[in-house]
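A quick aside before the break. I want you to see a complete sequence-to-structure record at least once, exactly as it would be stored in a machine-readable document. Don't worry about memorizing anything.
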Amino acid sequence: MKTLDAIPNKQVQTSDVSKAWPELDDTFEMNEFYRSFSSAEGWLGDSYIIVWNRKEIADFRIHINEAYPEKYHFFGSDGGGTQFGFFVDNGVVSYVSAPNIGAEEDIRVLGGWDEMILCLEKCDYI
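That is the input. The structure line, written in tokens, reads:
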């Protein structure tokens, strides 16, 4: 499995090792990430990615409620108007990209974890 470890400038998390999404198990990729890091920022292949800290995730949720249903959980962006997130359907996690200004029909499903990483590496997510 490819990870976000390739992103430079990660901030090591020292105090809060709880799950970012407690409804998902310990093997969920983003829970694994947040057990070790509070955030990350840098290049992943051809894409620049910012993985938000938990406060930024909560703040974004407040501002995006009207555009995207609560089933979408956003955790980062490309710094240029595209957000990255996921949703769970029948126990399957699918990763998505979505414009900062848009609606549910503008969301692009990228697939599972490995597919999302490949899309990011190739800058193929918009």
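Two observations worth writing down. The chain has a mean pLDDT of 88. The longest strand covers residues 37-44. We'll return to this after the break.
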